[in-house]
Amino acid sequence: MPILTILEVVVASLLIILILLQMQGSGLSSAFGGVGEFYRSKRSIEKFLIGATVVTTIAFATISLLLLVP
């Protein structure tokens, strides 16, 4: 069971990072110094972040439920 606990901490940390990368309103362009000229690539990065956040959230919930089982 300690493996699941360590995995949950890692997944929780990754989830926090992914959520913080999704800055509300300004998007990723200001975070990396751009002015939003590359709208297409900015959109694909944001789509990737949203998808990764969903997958990480599902993994976190699953591990949390597994840790409840005695």
Percent helix among the residues? over 70%
Estimate the mean pLDDT confidence. Answer: 82
User: What are the segments in which pLDDT stays under 50 over at least 5 consecutive residues?
Assistant: none
Question: What percent of residues are in strands?
Answer: under 5%
Counted by DSSP, the helix tally is 2
What's the structural blueprint in terms of helices and strands?
Elements: H1 2-21, H2 39-68
Report on this model:
This protein is mostly helical and 70 residues long. The protein has one domain. It contains 2 helices and no strands. It has helices spanning 2-21, 39-68. The longest helix has 30 residues, at 39-68.
Brief description of this entry?
71% of the residues lie in helices and 0% in strands. It contains two helices and no strands.
Question: What descriptive keywords fit this protein?
Answer:
70 residues, mainly alpha, 2 helices, 71% helix
